[in-house]
């Protein structure tokens, strides 16, 4: 796309140039349909420090190329003259001249009549007023015509002619100018769009690279609008001094933007001393622009040398970046090569060939802007890949963590909470259920492990039915698996669903027994597979260990007593050893609703001359034999 823009712009600049020899141009065979717009570039009659009058003959005529700056002197005034012979067929048709500004004041006469003046032509500094004005002037065609131009310069280091005039039919000259303005507008608005996009990106993401790219885009748009067709001044007249200052300052800012980006991108290998040197020189160059045009234009070569040095250094560190395998250095390398080549071409065109009509640096900078975006994009891809990898690792970690913590804990951890704050650790009370499969070690079936695994898995699922992460509510909390059974608590750390710990615990125990019977069918055992269930209501607390893995656990008297009451089955089941049994502490039994107490038998401990270990004060317990 950049190449297409370059070629399109070049086609707008370069027009058919007819041979102008010793101030004469024969256009008697000119056909505007074949060559619509002609550049009046060639050998004009020239008189230094002389004001030629219309049709005045020079005693010793001299000739000079137009465009071309003055070689032997920079300030003064001169006259240029071109005589044309036009086709008779064009008689009285409307022709037009596009007259660009020259250095630095100009007066144009056509057949002795003044048709245009840029600034005010004068023979000394006091009478000469510089200007950057340019215009399209229409006139009726005549067979023989004389174009007489007076140019004076006392305000710039380079006097003479910078740009060639263009001539053609009025509509062709206007169309040619319009096409060039449109082409430049497309490039400028593209640069403005890119620049503003990256500036706004910086406002959002605060990444300095975005600011550097945006700075490059905006300065390149400014530079482009101040050269070529000078669109900026077509819209906003700036005047002579302001126009030149902005034109040159945009070039220096463009190089500074380039160096700024290279510094940010390759900061680890960018020399601090050279960086400081470039910064100081840049400040001096920027300050120099705001002095008189005559002064700073005289020392342009120093600024150009500095720009070339800065570009060469960035080119050098881009090579170092390639050797060190710094990601994206290849884009900086090609961008540096492009902008260095463009700068060198412009220096040759301006300083050696005296061509001010077409600059390559804008297109080199446009290519570099593209390389900047590619470099920043490649770094962003690396960053995004890193983020994706970290996200995948984090998701994997969360997935693994979800196997050992509850969903509400995951949510709290993701919200910034520490693990220790995700589960209750205060003192409370709960009904603890101790579930044990009686005689599981005597089961010889090949699927016994699957039977145990499926039974415990289904019981755990029942404990989590109706789990509410926001209310921290669930039927039960699985404390641990113990041998061929498990412990779970009702009422802590999860709140009960119905509000009654004892009621919920008993219903849960019945569910566990039903699950055991359903899973036991797979064994097709001749003797029944039974379980013992003990339940106790007492104190309980949660905690995280001070050292080692921070695994949540609960402890308390209720945990101990539940196992003790389940163990009492051996004193109760003397004659019914092949039956499942639920054994309740008296606090649990008395906390049940009356209808839930039905079917339980009272077991007097004193009468049977036995005690419940760790609960010697207990006088009775309650049990139920289940089919």
Describe this entry's structure for a reader:
This protein has 17 helices and 22 strands. The strands form 4 sheets. Strands 15, 16, 17, 18, 19, 20, 21 and 22 form an 8-stranded mixed β-sheet that branches. Strands 2, 4, 5, 7, 9, 10 and 12 form a 7-stranded mixed β-sheet that branches. With 627 residues, the chain is of the alpha+beta class. It has helices at residues 2-13, 170-205, 208-226, 231-235, 240-265, 272-289, 293-298, 300-323, 329-352, 361-401, 407-414, 448-463, 501-520, 557-567, 569-572, 586-591, 594-597, and strands at residues 16-17, 24-26, 37-39, 42-48, 62-66, 68-69, 76-85, 94-99, 105-110, 113-118, 135-140, 144-153, 160-161, 166-169, 427-437, 477-482, 485-490, 531-543, 553-555, 580-585, 601-604, 620-626.
